[in-house]
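User: I'm writing a short report section on ligand binding and want a predicted complex to refer to. Could you take this sequence and zinc ion and write out the structure as tokens? A short remark afterwards would be nice.
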Amino acid sequence: MTAFDIVVRHGLLVDGTGAPRRHADVGIVGRRVAAIGDLSGAVGAIEIDATGRVVAPGFIDAHTHDDRYLMLSPEMPAKLSQGVTTVVTGNCGISLAPWRAPADATVPPPLNLLGQDPAEFRFADFATYLAALEAQPAAINAACLVGHTTLRVAAMASLDRTATDAEIAAMQALLHEAMTSGAIGLSTGAAYPTAMPASTAELTGVASVLRQFDSVYATHIRDEGDKIFDALDEAFAVGAAGSAPTVISHHKLIGPRNHGRSTETLAHIAQAMTRQPVGLDCYPYTAGSTILRRDRLAVASRVIVTSSVPHPEYAGLDLDDIAKRMGLSPEDTVDALQPAGAIYFLMDEADVQRILAYPPTMIGSDGLPHDTAPHPRLWGTFPRVLGHYCRDIGLFTLEAAVHKMSGLTAATFGLPARGVLKPGYFADITIFDPETIMDRATWGAPTSRSVGIDTVIVNGVVSWCGDAATGARAGAVIRLTDDVAM
Ligand code: ZN
Ligand code: CU
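Assistant: Sure. The structure tokens for the complex follow:
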């Protein structure tokens, strides 16, 4: 009789490719899936009964800021509890490495989304960062991008201008080291003041290093409002300069004036896809979240403060209420709370649904794990897509929803042997109840855990079972050079 380490029986297999669901058992040996089909003649050292449940690839969070969260909370509760088995880190131009901050440095925004204390930025190169991750593995896998803003901070004495040729060369050297060590690509965030002065030539100059590697270019584009078409075109040009697939991060349209324009932006993206590889990700909410900025007040209908270093007691409250309590204008309140983070209601539900439903769109949470009262996307994104958008309003099929959070993401980022349930692929598996899966995190209770996730297996190790983490730390650093098959 064939013996497996784990057999998952009687489940409804949704394999991540988008193919129709089917009844099949899954057999695991070591870190990999060994067989899929009728395994009634085989035994598993661990037997998991998935009757009435969906058996899917572990979800891949296409857009995260978990660079430090992986080390601070290696059990990764916000992600594992949603069925996420892999996070793509280093988005929006900000990564924890490579930068060793001087002890007296101020961590510039938005890099401070990863940590306010310069002591947290302690990795002069990417090899040291990845070695630290591997020495104390997290419960889930990480695929790590290098942030262009981090490169600027490491290579430039002042951030209020575009880089000189010598500074671009220094950034190229840092990026080259990172790619050689196992980074999966580059991210930029020219929408933020610390990277805004960077010219397109600076971005293409840095990205040109990617030509030497399999890689990806992910970008929080320069403008998600009135000038979004210029910003998209710049992103495509930078991706082309690196011969890398371009991922448009958290695609959205900001401000009432631009609501409804996703019909045009998606057409523009589709046109670019005829010339070069392009992907995009999206989170399932009409509010965004980032550092607290004066310039966002005009386009947001409501602002909730998520954290403030001088006033932590205000986290979770509306900016308008804080302004009343402090007796200040909203603008002056923004200044008084710095450094701080916020949630901004600035999107249109019809755009969010149109972008989510667009077949090439991946799911990425963009969760901010270090906020005191974080945007609920940190704890709720994946069950919200499966529960609210898929089951309850029927925005797409279950097969399409799972594909957007697994197979599509692995293919877009080029993650070897991940994202699909197939013999030879890594055994990252999420088992959930399609009838009950639902997010519970709300604006008022942002860290409430989702429901409906039964079992999560990471690299062949049961890491979540019933209603709790097992304590396993089976996460790996994913490299684009990982073995495709056994
Ligand atoms: Zn961003
Ligand atoms: Cu982001």
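A remark for your report: The chain has two domains: 3-57+421-469, 59-413. Residues 165-181 form the longest helix (17 residues).
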